[in-house]
Design brief:
Immunoglobulin-like
């Protein structure tokens, strides 16, 4: 089921996170992971225990519907995201990596390390773990162009996995939900400035 839900926030990197990580000004504290996180789509590693869940809200013009929530963590090398989506059917035809995945079910992350630099990364992930990644360049608030990314190097590519709940992880399957777990190396943000460190703040949209 395609339903837009989003969170627009500042990501504040922290050594630890309390149970109430989202502030009234939209700042989300990103926890340092409590240990190793294996990317298997399940999100049940102990490394996630310091990360706080927060709910994604219906975007303007969207109606209420199945819930979506997300959490984030980081370690010395990467940013981790986990999405949990209630759903009834996997609306996907397993479009290939690098294609227009957003025409079907996806979760998305727009990550902008430094607002002073008019460039950010957009990621989309489908229920079958296919990915569209783009480097977006902007000028005066308007998009100038985009490129598939990362341009080079295995160390800059994400690792992701998905899982279905209440059904098979197959296109069109009847389910009760699906999850996506992603690791994005900090090397993917090379050249976008404001490197991750305790106290650093990034902009991000999650859908």
């Amino acid at each position: 089921m395609i339903l837009l839900r989003c969170a627009i926030a500042l990501l504040l990197f922290s050594r630890l996170v309390s149970a109430d990580a989202a502030t009234d000004d939209g700042t989300l504290t990103v926890a340092r992971s409590a240990g190793a996180i294996a990317i298997d789509g399940l999100g049940d590693d102990a490394g996630w225990t310091t990360a706080t869940w927060y709910d994604l809200q219906p975007s303007a013009g969207s109606t209420t519907g199945p819930a979506t929530r997300a959490r984030l963590a980081y370690d010395d090398a990467a940013l981790y995201l986990f999405f949990d989506c209630d759903d009834q059917r996997l609306t996907t035809t397993a479009l290939a990596n690098g294609t227009l995945l957003f025409t079907e079910d996806v979760v998305e992350a727009f990550i902008h390390p430094d607002p002073a630099i008019p460039a950010y990364l957009e990621y989309q992930w489908s229920p079958v773990a296919h990915e569209l990644c783009m480097l977006i360049l902007k000028s005066d608030g308007a998009g100038m162009g985009n490129w598939l990314c990362p341009p080079d190097g295995e160390n800059r590519r994400s690792t992701r996995a998905t899982a279905a709940r209440g059904g098979d992880r197959e296109p069109g399957a009847t389910v009760t939900g699906w999850t996506a777990e992603i690791r994005i190396p900090f090397a993917a943000f090379t050249g976008l400035a404001n490197p991750p460190a305790v106290g650093a703040t990034w902009r991000a949209n999650l859908f």
